[in-house]
Amino acid sequence: MKKDRKTVVHVVQHLSPGGIESLALDFVSFSSNDHDVYIVSLQGTKEQAIENWPRLEAFAENLIFFNKPDAFSLKTISDLSVLFRELRVDVVHTHHIGPLLYAGLAAKRCGIKSKLHTEHDVWHLNSFKHRQLQRALLMWVQPMVVADAFKVEQRLDELFTHSKLTTIHNGIDTMRFVEGKKQASREVLNLPNDTTIIGTAGRLESVKGHDLLIQAISELPRQYQLAIAGDGSQFEALITLTQSLGIEDRVHFLGRLEDMPLFYQALDLFCLPSRHEGFPLTAIEAQSCGTPTLVTDVGASAETLCPDSGLLVEANCPHKLAYSIQAFKPSNTSPRKHVVEKHDIRDVVSRYQQLANIGA
Question: What is the pTM of this model?
Answer without folding.
Answer: 0.89
